[in-house]
Amino acid sequence: GLLQSQLLNIYCREVEKAIKRAIDVGYRHIDSAYMYQNEEEIGRAIQMKIADGTVKRGDLFYTTKLWSTFFRPELVQTCLESSLKKLQLSYVDLYLIHFPIAMKPGEDFFPKDTHGNIIFDTVDLCTTWEALEKCKDAGLAKSIGVSNFNCKQLEMILNKPGLKYKPVCNQVECHPYLNQSKLLEFCKSKDILLVAYAALGSDLRKKWVKKDNPVLLQDPVLNTIAEKHRRTPAQVTLRYQLQRGVAALAKSFNEKRLKENFQVFEFQLTPEDMQSLDGLNRNMRYFEEDS
Length: 291
Description:
GO terms for molecular function: oxidoreductase activity. Residues 14-281 form the NADP-dependent oxidoreductase domain. This is NADP-dependent oxidoreductase domain-containing protein. It is built from ten helices and seven strands. It is of the alpha/beta class. The chain has a seven-stranded parallel beta sheet with strand order 1-2-3-4-5-6-7. It is globular and about 55 Å long.
């Protein structure tokens, strides 16, 4: 327990430093969630960068997410207000439903029964969505969307009687090994932006990431294209998403890589490059389905 809390403290200090660094480099979109338990540190970093004149609040685009234990309509705003308090912000730019699965309300992020099984909750996601619409009307969130939704779940929201605002985006795992082409096509047809997390694959040291997966950034095809353009494999991976109309999220604590990831606007991939990268798809997830 002590070691865990020490590791969490180190991680939180790193988060604060990374946010300040990223803002200095030029990043303006910060993506987090209630569940990540790092919003106090992010809030501190944002406040410092506003205080020293680097940015104004309006320059930043901040995204947070509603956790699954707050899906009952009367709890939705509570979760958002909790995030806002930690962030020291009066609104977020984007509020997402984190996962399309409701869990039993309470203190635990993953409520379990005596056998160690997750305790789910029966909540109609359409009523959760209506509560998000109210958060937008109250000015607590400028835009609202979803995360980890499939086409069927998106349609359920889109076809909801009396829908006031449709989801502006759907944030999902997406990279050349899982290019989500069908979901992307569906989202484009509904004018919903697809946002990619794990856009560079994922860190195999994380406990919820599958251990036997190949490392995306070591892919030979990806590396050949990177060498041709004199770019890094990460830059090519991010550029690939931009050219197919996907917003890509990349996480780094490293200043050099933060700068490199920001240089994806300086080159273009050819149609042949794009075709080769499309060919890498193997419907492979880094994130464990059951985690």
